User: Fold these one by one.
Assistant:
Number 1:
Amino acid sequence: MTGNQKEASIEEIHRAMEEGTLTSAGLVETLTAWIEEINEAGPELRAVRMLNPDAADEARARDEEWQNGVRRPLQGIPVLLKDNIEAGTMPTTAGAEALRGNVTGRDAFLVKQLREAGAVILGKTNLSEWAFFMTDGAPSGYSTVGGQVKHPHGPETFEAGSVGGSSSGSGAAVSAGMAPIAVGTETSGSILSPASANSLVGLKPTVGAVSRNGIIPLAESQDTAGPMARTVRDAALLFGAITGEDESDEITKKGETSKDYTSYLDTESLTGAIFGIDWDYAGKEGSEERRLIEEAVSTLRRRGAVVRNVTIPKAEPPHVLFYEMKRGTDAYLSASPAEIPVRSLDELLAFNREDPEGRMRFGQTLLEQAAEKSSDPDDAEYVAFRETDVRTSREEGVDAVMAEHALDGMLSVNNHGAALPAKAGYPSITIPVGAQENGMPVGLTITARAWEEPRLVAFGSAVEAHAGHRVVPALAVEQPN
């Protein structure tokens, strides 16, 4: 194919494969060489935690299928996985030293779905350790196993943590051209934050749209995996591949999903749409961030949308996360392979204390707070906190605002409005709308009600077409020979 393979969309890759100018194996070879050039060497982005040793073989198998007429949505497409998602013989570490050797031999349910859709698992991405729930003292994007993820738009100038978290490596990798798509996970802002920070499309699904089976848990009431991509179409393709009912995850049986979200792409969907925006969630007044959101809102209005000023209530403190972290971590560690040196959260804390500098450089304050909580799902205090979260985030929160103003969606900047829909389990999408003068990207985020991903894909494609502006990192721009 002509052009920059590192920036190619899924559609462009498949077109080149049809034309015979590109193979999956050739693309994997190109991306692997690029990762080796900029991940541990060069700017040392540390976005990819490890490459899949079987990726080349998987790509050759997908090429053979292609030659035999097999055409699946992600046929031959390399995808990166956040390193809290199990995949075959690759260790799943959550960035933690205690899990460095966590080889389960299993594929997470969503990884099985990716393989069924024809994808090639290229490798694992670095992340904020324990999905950014280890300590309140570490920069986003840091893990003991993977080091610090650097921002591809300013690896030498942007401060540590600016890359967003906790799916930091997934965001930086796709932005830097290491893979066309990646899977991140979110409990509260962890897809939206790195997607917007890296000028990507990020879709945080309704909790239950994607199985959590085979993903190291943080908080069962809020955890979900979701797509990160350079275009809305690619995000929709990836999302469709990983949605669906899983018998081992009861929450996936609670709503309707699709296997083809590209059918909802609609660049004219803004006409007649009604959005609400609380400017407290749209950047500081007078800032470049706010200016970019104001410009995007003006474009939405010119394309026929109504944008109303609304007041969105503040989310309750994250009490629930500490209880669910304790319960989920104990359950996961107790069933880990024999080689893993810890079997509970308490044992993890003790293990880290044996080598503070090497295993808990920034402390483990959040893990310590979680360890003090009850593991009982019927604990009265936990139940009360969860009931408060549901009430204040749904019927008194998102649902109330949407109903009062007859909204189709709520607007915000980046992940600034992520907490309330996260507690509700509701979906959001973020779309790049440019960058500040220092090069820091900005995203316009749209939130909807449960199971309204089709609406978000439609609105996202329209924003992308009329107000979108993805900024490509200078290091990912192909240089002439």
Number 2:
Amino acid sequence: MLNLKQLASKEKVGLAGGHRACAGCGFPQIISMIFGQSPAPVVSGCSTGCMEIATTIYPFTAWRGNFMHSAFENSAATISGIETAYRALKKQGRLPADENLNFVALGGDGGTYDIGFQALSGAMERGHNMLYVCYNNEAYMNTGVQRSSATPQGGHTTTSPAGKVIPGKTQYPKDLTGIMAAHSIPYVAQGSVGYHIDLMRKADKAFSIEGPKFMNVYTPCRLGWGSDPAKTMEIARLAVDTCMWPLYEVVDGQWKLTRKVREKKGITEFYKTQNRFRHLLKPENDEFVKEIQAEVDRRWHVLLSKCGEGA
């Protein structure tokens, strides 16, 4: 159970001040919220991306603990290897038997949904005692805002440009959280940087569970989304309240909604906050928006059914 007074007085973990993330970026808050719940020291690593670039510009590092930078495709494989080596060294008596560490792999949606999916799936299937966290900003932001399979339908990116030919990305986003739940691992969760108590509770639960865990965390990118950096948290909450990014967890195969949206807002309320969707607010794209809204509604009702909730 979270105690906010204890958290406020706890020694800061994760990142030190002075990292070079953009103003309004959500990933530094995610690291603080999640790492702060670990009862043991954390060994972490992340794939190439915004997080790595902003925190490890040679010869400096913003990481307070042990950190390993991996190639774009293998953050999960790297941390699974470190976790295996740690268990082997303890078994050989070369490390104290009563010592405990937590292992966390991180990656953006490009390095998780797409390029790093094989390493992620393999690590989860093998059953490594680790937590994988995807900071999902819905595009390849570090290399120029290209589409990923996490990019929402209608989103404008440099490789799915909204114009006369297409109205932004034409495909629906991949349901990676559902795919990870299908791996039958002990814990899977979907969170948002805008709902910090929910996110911290999920991290606390993840660290208490032995075996592979996965968390998919919604993280607005003020640069790639064309949004006001002061409204990052507001936008992250709005994604939840429109049911475009529901909050739930799957514990040993049991689905549970962790935030019940009583008055669901229309997706256009979300679109109004970002330049990447401004073309969808034009009258000529009304039918396309209705199609997207219908799919959001369908996915929401499927989730409610899985969680045993009424419509």
